[in-house]
């Protein structure tokens, strides 16, 4: 724990530590009732497990500041279920397990940039760009004229992830995929050939 702060310093996105676990404040509200002392309603999310808590704290209560560092890193390769990243400033390499990556592993290709969050020197979260461009490696052939029907078909991307795409998409096309919403197709960036 790097220090302490009190509830008057709360803001959305602030990272705090409670009972030895790092949290991020998603919502807070200072309440001053007519009678009694002021308090703070909060909604916090664990950076380790993702669970959400809604504690109420007295005005002036103190919480810890976690030892958190965010590093700009570049994805290099996968080996035995470990994903290797390189720090873009000092070129040090570290590996991150599949469990920490979660859905982000579906969008990782070599040399993609990511922000890696470290707590007490251990990687706990990876944030990718909002969208990535990935090549279609397998899908049924597109049919001429199927551009406005709204029907979808599955397509396998170069990372092995399967996404639903419009019927006019072909193998070899490059697609823009939204990494925030579980891999939603956004648009075609380039066509095959």
Name of the top-level CATH class of the largest domain: Mainly Beta
Looking at the structure, what is the overall shape?
Answer: elongated
Helix and strand pattern: EEEEEEEEEEHEEEEEEE
Secondary-structure-based class equals mainly beta
The second-level CATH architecture of the largest domain is Roll
Helix content: under 10%
Number of helices: 1
For the largest beta-sheet, the strand count, sense and barrel status come to:
5 strands, antiparallel
Radius of gyration: 22 Å
What's the CATH topology label of the largest domain?
SH3 type barrels
The low-confidence parts are: none
Distance between the termini: 55 Å
Number of domains: 3
Q: In what range is the share of β-strand residues?
A: over 45%
Average pLDDT: 86
Number of strands: 17
Would you spell out the secondary-structure blueprint of this structure?
Layout: E1 3-6, E2 15-18, E3 21-31, E4 39-46, E5 52-53, E6 56-58, E7 62-65, E8 68-79, E9 82-87, E10 93-97, H1 98-101, E11 113-119, E12 122-127, E13 131-139, E14 152-157, E15 162-166, E16 174-178, E17 184-190
Antiparallel strand pairs: 1-7, 2-3, 3-4, 4-5, 4-6, 8-9, 8-11, 9-10, 11-12, 13-14, 13-16, 14-15, 16-17
Pathway: Protein biosynthesis; polypeptide chain elongation
Subcellular location: Cytoplasm
InterPro entries: Elong-fact-P_C, NA-bd_OB-fold, Rib_uL2_dom2, Transl_elong_fac_P/YeiP, Transl_elong_KOW-like, Transl_elong_P/YeiP_cen, Transl_elong_P/YeiP_CS, Transl_elongation_fac_P
């Amino acid at each position: 724990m790097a220090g302490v702060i009190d509830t008057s310093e709360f803001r959305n996105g602030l990272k705090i530590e409670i009972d030895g676990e790092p949290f991020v404040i998603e919502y807070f509200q200072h309440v001053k009732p007519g009678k009694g002392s002021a308090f703070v309603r909060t909604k916090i999310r664990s950076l380790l497990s993702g669970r959400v808590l809604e504690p109420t704290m007295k005005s002036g209560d103190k919480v810890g500041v976690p030892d958190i560092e965010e590093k700009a890193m570049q994805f290099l390769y996968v080996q035995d279920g470990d994903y290797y990243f390189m720090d873009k400033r000092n070129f040090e390499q570290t590996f991150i397990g599949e469990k920490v990556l979660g859905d982000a592993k579906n969008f990782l290709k070599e040399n993609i940039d990511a922000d890696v969050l470290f707590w007490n020197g251990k990687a706990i979260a990876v944030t990718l760009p909002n969208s990535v461009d990935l090549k279609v490696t397998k899908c049924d052939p597109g049919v001429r004229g199927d551009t406005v029907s709204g029907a979808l078909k599955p397509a396998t991307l170069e990372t092995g992830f399967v996404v639903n795409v419009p019927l006019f998409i072909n193998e070899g096309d490059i697609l823009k995929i939204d990494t925030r919403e579980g891999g939603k197709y956004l648009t075609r960036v380039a066509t095959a050939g």
